[in-house]
UniProtKB/TrEMBL annotation:
Pathway: Amino-acid biosynthesis; L-arginine biosynthesis; L-arginine from L-ornithine and carbamoyl phosphate: step 2/3. Residues 1-79 form the Arginosuccinate synthase C-terminal domain. Its EC number is 6.3.4.5. It comes from Atlantisia rogersi. This is argininosuccinate synthase.
Length: 92
């Protein structure tokens, strides 16, 4: 119902902009209403198996994740705290 709204136009522009550098190939199988991803590849892929493996020696230690998780949890806790205030005011 909001396809022609300014908000939807904004979202379409954001999505379009975020996908500007996306190139590659996706192989799918479609069968009886289901879609199965068979494979995907891209020359610009950010995924590097060597960087995400805990078996490869590098500058990343599993304990490093703790700081990342704590920083993101602060941001998300504050977001939800503010959202609950907005919800209470709207309900009044």
């Amino acid at each position: 119902g909001f396809w022609h709204s300014p908000e939807c136009e904004f979202l379409r522009q954001c999505i379009g902009r975020s996908q500007g550098a996306v190139v590659g190939t996706v192989r799918l199988s479609v069968f009886k209403g289901h879609v199965y991803i068979l494979g995907r590849e891209s020359p610009r892929s950010l995924y590097n198996e060597e960087l995400v493996s805990m078996n490869v020696q590098g500058d990343y230690e599993p304990a490093d994740a703790t700081g990342f998780i704590n920083i993101n949890s602060l941001r998300l806790k504050e977001y939800h705290r503010l959202q609950s205030k907005v919800t209470v005011k709207q309900d009044e």
